[in-house]
Please model this.
Amino acid sequence: MPEAFLVVRATVSDATKRAAFDDWYRREHLPDAIKTFGASKAWRCWSDTDPAVHQATYQVASSAAAEAALKSDGMKELIAEFERCWPGIPRAREILTLVDER
Model:
């Protein structure tokens, strides 16, 4: 079964919040999300094109696993904690399936 990626993009428009957001995401949110999603790897990036954009990418076993993670109680808990810590920061999620690797 092909591997899939769960991608979460957040837009941290207030530049004064980015360092604290980055630290919180690295120390708290990323480890919790890896566990919740059953991810084998995770990457975080800040956009060079738009410095407000933060992207976290989680490698999971399949798109079905990613779909299940998005519907899980653990995901609801992650969302609630994110909203508590970072209210008003918009996010978008998508699932990508690997179709070619060279």
Summary: The chain has three helices and four strands. Strands lie at 4-11, 41-46, 53-60, 91-97. The domain at 4-97 is CATH 3.30.70.100 (Alpha-Beta Plaits). The first strand starts at residue 4 and ends at 11.
